[in-house]
Amino acid sequence: LNRSLAGMGTTIFAEMSALATATGAINLGQGFPDTDGPREIAEAAARAVLEGRGNQYPPGPGIPELRTAIAEHQHRFYGLSYDPDTEVLVTAGATEALAAALLALLEPGDEVIAFEPFYDSYAACIAMAGAKRVPLTLRAPAFRPDLDELRALITPRTRLLLVNTPHNPTGTVLTPEELAAIAELAVEHDLLVITDEVYEHLVFTGAHHPLAALPGMRERTVSISSAGKTFSFTGWKVGWVTASPALVAAVRTAKQYLTYVSAGPFQYAVAEALRLPDAYYADFRADLHRKRDLLAAGLAAAGFGVHEPQGTYFITTDITPLGEKDGLEFCRTLPARCGVVAVPNVVFYDDAEAGRSLVRFAFCKRVRVIEEAVSRLGTLR
Ligand code: PMP
Ligand code: GLN
């Protein structure tokens, strides 16, 4: 294994999902819904396959129908205008978008400031690019970025800020003031920004604001999102980038040699999904809002310290009120103790102390599954 990937052998998501399968436990670890997205969108994918649309290599940047739908979505929800031909790129999930963007934009030795806890592929891709990740720790209980600390972390080697809002795993949604402060620093120091907004439609408290909409940001920001979360088809792996022509061209160059193109028929279906009426987005959010509240109340009743998320489909908890200290050990033994799988946040930190006792539960599950999980967790103390 390449030295840059040392210690990154198996992602925590694979480890914990394998544990759920092996033990038959309820899987509130890896973030994927246990109910598929809209039937008509699944049918659109099936139709595309059967009608021979996208069964051979689609265009490298993505099919025009999808690029147009992505541009329309950015305008419909945020008033952002992107040219579908030069400013939109379809990728194999947000994961490939992140990888291609980081590989395209970083030189060895560059520094990247990223929130921690961080989504695990950030660390791997920054390492593969030969760059250095500089963490800005979001600390319990509020998990807000300290903007003075951010300013202090910027050096002449800083090339890029990697932002994630709504934030996995803490559920933090950046406020307009926080975004404005980040944007100001990016402009002042002439930094590129990659913003991972895959949970853009999953905000329960406050609202999602795309970083690219702030003054001075459109030209320096690579915005990334994905159909997986918004439409509950995480297995389709359709993601996208919106950015200036120069940045999209750079990311496309890297993407060409990673996957060349992304799966064709799903692109037709996602183009339809993005055009679903506002009621789809509102109902989806309302359903998850109820599930957030259900799981949060259940976890609190079971004795966990609950950090209520503003967005995403995850709740970060503190296990110290249960008399536990070590989240990794807790998650490895939880299936045997009570038949539930969760994810230890500590694996998303360099500063292990900051994340040691934090454990993440996903609530993108059927109500009866959440209720059963909560009743099992209630036996812990
Ligand atoms: N970024 C974050 C913050 C995520 O939580 C996820 C999904 N696990 C991804 C990126 C990857 O998205 P995709 O499945 O579209 O590759
Ligand atoms: N994004 C999901 C999570 O955070 C799953 C990611 C993955 O399996 N790579 O759980």
Largest sheet composition = 7 strands, mixed
Number of E-state strands? 13
Helix content: 40-55%
Strand order of the largest sheet: 2-8-7-6-5-3-4
Low-confidence stretches: none
Domain count: 2
Strand content: 15-25%
- Provide the CATH architecture of the largest domain: 3-Layer(aba) Sandwich
- State the helix count: 14
Give the CATH topology of the largest domain. Aspartate Aminotransferase, domain 2
Structural class: alpha/beta
Shape: globular
> What ions, cofactors and ligands are bound?
4'-deoxy-4'-aminopyridoxal-5'-phosphate, glutamine
Order of helices and strands: HEHHEHEHEHEHEEHEHHHEEHEEHEH
Q: Which CATH C-level class of the largest domain is it?
A: Alpha Beta
Mean pLDDT: 97
CATH homologous superfamily title of the largest domain = Type I PLP-dependent aspartate aminotransferase-like (Major domain)
List the defining traits of the structure above.
381 residues; Aspartate Aminotransferase, domain 1; Aspartate Aminotransferase, domain 2; seven-stranded mixed beta sheet; four-stranded antiparallel beta sheet; 14 helices; 13 strands; 43% helix; binds 4'-deoxy-4'-aminopyridoxal-5'-phosphate; binds glutamine
Written description of the protein model:
The structure is a single chain. By secondary structure, the chain is an alpha/beta fold. The chain folds into two domains: 127 residues, Aspartate Aminotransferase, domain 1 (Alpha-Beta Complex); 238 residues, Aspartate Aminotransferase, domain 2 (3-Layer(aba) Sandwich), CATH 3.40.640.10. It is built from 14 helices and 13 strands. The strands form three sheets. It has a seven-stranded mixed sheet, sandwiched between helices. A four-stranded antiparallel sheet has the order 9-10-13-12. A hairpin with a 6-residue loop joins strand 9 and strand 10. Helix 2 runs antiparallel to helix 10. The termini are far apart.
